[in-house]
Design goal:
single chain; alpha+beta; six-stranded antiparallel β-sheet; three-stranded antiparallel β-sheet; 4 helices; 9 strands
Length: about 120
Amino acid sequence: MNFPDELKYTKDHEWVKIEGDIATIGVTDFAQKELGDIVYVEVETLGETLEAGEVFGTVEAVKTVSDLFMPVTGEILEFNGELESSPELVNDAPYTEGWMVKVKLSGGAPADLLDATAYKNLIGE
């Protein structure tokens, strides 16, 4: 499995790429493999400001539906519209074309984000 070193990770299996005050968020390679074939991604929180830990959307796979949790506090600025017609991008390219939302950070990155090594330890990789 692939866990890029430049990203941060959560215990809920999301990744975060922080550039200035914008965070791009998606699910990890581990998460997409565990979910299986993703058929739908729903984010109804566009334009809302959410706290870290709140649900910002759901991802639906053939066998299950899982909540997506905000790893940071901020306003959801953008949803990856490509996922509406091609949700399989989350499976095919979770760290690039399969990103889910972009968030304007409020108060910076939380201290509990994991680096790649800590995330690999979490999942037993």
